Amino acid sequence: MTGEQEMISVFVVDDHEVVRRGIASFLEFADGIAFVGEASDGREALDRLAVLSTQDQLPDVMLLDLRMPRLDGAETAAIVAERYPDVRTVILTSFSEIERVQTALANGASGYVLKDAAASEVEAAIRATQRDEVFIDAAVAGRLTKRLSGPGHGVGSLSARERDVLVLVGRGLSNRAIAERLAISERTARTHVSKLLTKLNLNTRTQAALVAVREGLVDADPE
Fold first, then answer.
1. Do residues 115 and 156 both lie within one domain?
2. What is the pLDDT of residues 43-84, one digit of tens each?
3. pLDDT surpassing 60 at residue 171
4. What phi and psi values does residue 11 have, to the nearest 5 degrees?
5. Which residue from 121, 120, 119, 166 is spatially nearest to 139, judged by alpha carbons?
6. Please, are residues 170 and 209 in contact by the beta-carbon 8 Å criterion?
7. 20 to 30 Å CA-CA from 171: which of 47, 74, 145, 182?
8. pTM attached to this predicted model
9. Can you list the positions of beta strands (E) in 3-159?
10. Which residues, listed in sequence order, are joined to residue 39 by a DSSP beta bridge?
11. Do β-strands 61-65 and 88-93 pair in parallel, antiparallel, or remain unpaired?
């Protein structure tokens, strides 16, 4: 669509109909975002994605509840990341489920928001996925980053350039944006990200962003 904002399609997975209906309602009024489907658990969601894939109509983003029957959000996120790498997943969670959030993020989720978050926060999380950015709900980031403290997660093992890259990852920048900011190639930026993840014993960019927040290198709210 030349000159126009590309529509972001969103699929909602939650075992509570009132949550699905609420999200669908506010998405109707979000500029450039379209609600395109729903499912009551991970198993049903995967079944529907399989059909949508054959029709070349996969959603851009899935909002996933963590606690669901048959197949929960963390397991669903892992399967979606493997089968449909172009589909981004954002976890819907509550404070009581914080221990399971890290697993979901390690399984490929692009971020997380609280179920009682303002509509603007959910919208921000959806848009962040399309910019290859990390969205971290500031209200629970502190609790999650504490789980990343311990041996192997120290930033002291990083080179000066890797530390610079970690800061930019923490701010939600993509590899391309990091390359532009540091005047290096995108391939070099990707290599730096890979090396710092290895040194910090981490699996995902989101975990690296959380470390950056914990160490005070960036604010909890991404740019």
1. no
2. 999 999 999 999 999 999 999 998 888 888 888 988 998 899
3. yes
4. -115, 130
5. 121
6. yes
7. 74
8. 0.64
9. 8-13, 33-39, 61-65, 88-93, 111-114, 135-136
10. 13
11. parallel
Domain that holds residue 74: 8-145
* 154 shares a domain with 130: no
CA pair distance 105, 12, nearest whole angstrom:
17
Please tell me the distance from the alpha carbon of residue 68 to that of residue 49, in angstroms, as a whole number: 17
Residue identified by tokens 């909602």 is 12
Dist. CA 180–CA 83, nearest whole Å: 31
> For residue 47, what are its two tokens?
């079944």
Query: What is the per-residue pLDDT for 223?
Result: 43
Angle at 48 between CA 124 and CA 109, to 5 degrees: 35
d(C-alpha 61, C-alpha 84), whole Å: 11
DSSP tag of 1: -
CA–CA distance, 45 with 179 (Å, rounded to integer):
36
Mean pLDDT value across residues 10-35:
91
Locate 192 and state its tokens.
Answer: 């730096």
Return d(Cα 211, Cα 218) in angstroms, integer: 9
**Better-scored residue on pLDDT, 148 or 48:** 48
Average confidence score pLDDT of the chain? 83
pLDDT-wise least confident of 26-35, 134-143, 185-194, 207-216? 134-143
**Structural domain tally of the chain?**
2
Q: Which residues pair with 13 in a beta bridge?
A: 39, 64
The conformation of residue 144, written as its DSSP 8-state character, comes to H
CATH number at residue 157: 1.10.10.10
